[in-house]
């Protein structure tokens, strides 16, 4: 089965809409494009990737779709629309007409209001995503788990994937931290049809992390959701804050070493292809 990276980014800080990015960060605050990632994809046998938004603007989504048009390795784009503007349904409909547009990701982790998801004025967005057959990437922290559960139960037909295992606080691992996260993830697994990305764990860990630091979180996600609902993503280049692309891939392979070959194939490609409704790889 084709190996797919279910979560990576390309960006150009000079665009000026990456509000979260520290302007002097030596790792992040530089241009990242397809030519930078291509050697890693070839070396690691990754056939295609899912390109995910990193700026809260429609302009960046159009920028990413332009990259996707010119880059056969990009299977599709997860973009952004303004949920606080109901008139953006027309924008969503326009984007949905692009063959490589997959869905949207509001940057919920950066929104100060923890209950933003439940606001009445943003509900049109969840309904529109459902109506248009698009996907929803859920980006948040443990504190958002309960609200995501409520939204997913409110819109049972919506296709949702939980980014980065919902960012557990691995660097401060303790029963007080792990317990609520694990309980919230279990409820989402049991009470909804959500998938989850095995991604972003290294940046939630301390510098000098080990595979064993990550194992309780990966084990829980795999047990709760099953490999058929788990997809691996690099979160490159953000992962470079802790390690290189190949380092995280090797760690993820170690974390899934106990799975059968068919289950590993799901995690490293099959689940992403099914969830995002990706067609066959026409590039090869």
Question: How would you concisely characterize the structure shown here?
Answer:
The chain is α/β, with parallel strands linked by helices. It is built from ten helices and eight strands. Helix content is 40%, strand content 12%.
Strand content: 5-15%
Count of DSSP strands: 8
Fill in the CATH topology.
TIM Barrel
Give the proportion of residues in helices. 40-55%
**Elements, N to C (H/E):** EHEHEHEHEHEHEHHEHH
- What summary fits the major beta sheet? 8 strands, parallel
- Compute the number of structural domains: 1
Strand line-up across the major sheet: 1-2-3-4-5-6-7-8
What's the overall geometry? Answer: globular
**Average pLDDT, all residues:** 96
By CATH reckoning, the class would read Alpha Beta
Q: What integer value in Å does the Rg equal?
A: 18 Å
Q: What can you tell me about this protein's structure?
A:
The protein has 284 residues and is an alpha/beta fold. The chain has 10 helices and 8 strands. The chain has one domain: Metal-dependent hydrolases (TIM Barrel, Alpha-Beta Barrel). Strands 1-2-3-4-5-6-7-8 form an 8-stranded parallel β-sheet. Helix 5 runs parallel beside helix 6. 44% of the residues are buried.
């Amino acid at each position: 089965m084709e190996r797919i990276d279910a979560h990576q980014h390309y960006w150009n800080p000079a665009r000026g809409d990456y509000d979260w990015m520290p302007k002097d960060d030596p790792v992040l605050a530089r241009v990242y494009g397809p030519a930078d990632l291509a050697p890693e994809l070839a070396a690691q046998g990754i056939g295609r990737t899912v390109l995910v938004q990193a700026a809260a603007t429609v302009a960046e989504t159009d920028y990413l779709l332009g990259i996707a048009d010119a880059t056969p390795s990009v299977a599709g784009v997860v973009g952004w629309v303004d949920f606080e503007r109901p008139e953006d349904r027309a924008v969503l409909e326009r984007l949905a007409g692009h063959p490589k547009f997959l869905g949207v990701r509001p940057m919920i982790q950066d929104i100060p209001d923890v209950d933003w998801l439940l606001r009445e004025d943003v509900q049109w967005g969840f309904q529109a995503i459902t109506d248009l057959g698009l996907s929803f990437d859920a980006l948040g922290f443990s504190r958002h788990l309960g609200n995501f559960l409520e939204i997913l139960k409110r819109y049972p037909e919506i296709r949702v994937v939980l980014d980065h295992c919902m960012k557990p606080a691995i660097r401060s691992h303790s029963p007080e931290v792990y317990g609520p996260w694990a309980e919230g993830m279990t409820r989402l697994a049991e009470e909804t049809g959500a998938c989850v990305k095995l991604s972003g764990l290294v940046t939630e860990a301390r510098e000098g992390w080990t595979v064993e630091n990550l194992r309780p979180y990966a084990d829980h996600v795999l047990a709760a959701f099953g490999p058929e609902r788990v997809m691996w993503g690099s979160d490159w280049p953000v992962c470079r804050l802790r390690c290189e692309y190949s380092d995280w891939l090797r760690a993820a392979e170690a974390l899934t070493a106990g799975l059968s070959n068919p289950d590993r194939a799901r995690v490293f490609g099959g689940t992403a292809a099914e969830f995002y409704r990706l067609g066959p790889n026409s590039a090869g």
